[in-house]
Specification:
446 residues, 6-stranded mixed beta sheet, 6 strands
């Protein structure tokens, strides 16, 4: 047993050791990085903004008590208010996640502007959550008015459609605009006319002499008075048993939106055809011009065939229908190497571009998969200017099979690549960008 003196000596030693540890902790505390400290202050400032308003409503006339209660938080609020723009736009925003950024934007006008203009941070958040953005994604962010609004729209779309995966409206419209630009018209004439109307109303009223002169800023399509067809689009719609009624409705709705967008770009100078397939094929609509409202009525009245999935048979039927349509009009124009429309508005090389849009879940056995790819390659050789796109709908979608089919019509110039491997990777990325999920669920249908 220890004596009384020994025990008191041991207690004094333990007290001194604890005091030493506390002093070491105090010395280490100020070494935290400035970014984390500023981020913590930003969170505190955001909480102060919300709690202060609610407390002030409940405690009117108790200003002294309120100031004493919020004194520590107001101190942090002053810290974040005094941050320079370089630190706020850099380390602070980089240290905050999606929810913290949304909270910070509610503090004051300065933080709202900083969060809204932090496009680099929002694009980084998109990349962390959904992967590397492609050209369609970049166009969608521009349509949304910035990466923040696009991130919010995609987040809400994912939340509302869960457990299904659906693109937001900006992504769908960006893809539709990309399809319409294959006509050679870079912008929608209706949108250009609306923008021109807004600018003219803001200007002073023109004189009578200027009213007699034609406007120089007219839509691109208005310059063409020949009434020629700008492009042709053929839809291959899966009506097999693995496609539900909701999936089929998603396909018909997308077709209607496509026809509306293409007609807007081409001023109703486009031809459309619809082929439904299962074990057999059925030509629902022959290639021809059709009004957007009429096509919407037609799509609503379409009924699903049911049965198996024979993509190769659908490609064969589409090839024969396109060949007969092309022979009656002009030869198909080869698309640009980067996958977009020509910049010359279709006047440089002549001919009519043709798109084949495959709407299916892509689930076939290995034999039918090889047959579909072989038929797609034969299709591409017989009609060199045709371009495939695939839109996935349903459960357990086979996107790899759809990518292999689309890859057969991907055109790239091999001169800009150092190795064959780089060329194949770029071609694979181009094929992946032409495959889009409209309504998918990663689980088996049974």
């Amino acid at each position: 047993m220890l004596t009384r003196a020994a025990r008191s000596s041991q207690l004094r030693w333990e007290r001194s050791r604890r005091r030493g540890m506390r002093s070491v902790w105090r010395r280490r505390t100020p070494t935290r990085s400035a970014a984390k400290a500023a981020a913590k202050a930003a969170k505190a400032a955001a909480s102060v903004s919300v709690t202060t308003k609610s407390i002030q409503k409940k405690r009117k006339g108790k200003g002294k008590k309120l100031s004493c209660t919020l004194a520590p938080l107001v101190k942090d609020n002053l810290i974040i208010d005094l941050l320079p723009d370089e630190l706020l736009d850099g380390p602070v925003l980089e240290a905050l996640d999606f929810k913290d950024l949304c909270t910070l934007s509610l503090v004051c006008r300065r933080f709202e502007i900083a969060v809204s203009q932090g496009s680099q941070r929002w694009s980084s958040l998109y990349k962390e959550r959904w992967g590397e953005p492609d050209q369609i994604t970049t166009d969608a962010s521009k349509l949304a008015g910035g990466w923040k609004k696009f991130y919010k729209a995609k987040h809400l779309a994912e939340k509302e459609s869960a457990p299904w995966i659906q693109p937001c409206s900006y992504e769908v419209q960006a893809m539709l605009n990309h399809l319409a630009r294959f006509s050679g018209i870079s912008s929608c004439p209706a949108a250009a006319a609306a923008a021109a109307a807004k600018t003219t109303t803001r200007k002073a009223k023109p004189s009578s002499s200027s009213l007699s002169q034609p406007e120089s800023a007219q839509p691109a399509a208005a310059e063409d008075s020949d009434g020629g067809i700008k492009m042709m689009v053929t839809f291959l719609v899966d009506g097999s048993g693995s496609v539900t009624e909701d999936d089929f409705h998603t396909m018909t709705s997308f077709m209607s939106k496509t026809v509306e967008t293409v007609n807007s770009y081409t001023s109703d100078r486009a031809k459309f055809g619809v082929i439904q397939f299962s074990n057999e094929v059925k030509v629902e609509l022959k290639l021809g011009q059709i009004n957007s409202k009429e096509f919407e009525k037609f799509a609503i009245n379409m009924s699903r065939m049911n049965g198996g999935t024979n993509i190769a048979l659908a490609l064969s039927k589409a090839c024969s229908m396109i060949s007969s349509g092309v022979s009656a009009a002009s030869p198909v124009r080869a698309p640009a190497a980067d996958g977009g429309g020509d910049d010359d508005g279709g006047q440089g090389r002549g001919g009519i571009p043709h798109l084949v849009l495959l709407l299916t879940d892509g689930r076939v056995d290995s034999y039918q998969a090889r047959e579909a790819v072989d038929r797609a390659e034969q299709f591409a050789s017989e009609v060199p200017g045709v371009t495939f796109f695939a839109f996935a709908v349903g459960r357990s979608v086979d996107k790899q099979e759809l990518t292999r089919i689309v890859r057969t019509t991907c055109k790239l110039e091999s001169k800009g690549f150092e190795t064959r491997e780089d060329f194949n990777q770029a071609k694979g990325k181009l094929a992946e960008s032409r495959v889009m999920g409209l309504r998918t669920l990663d689980e088996p249908p049974w």
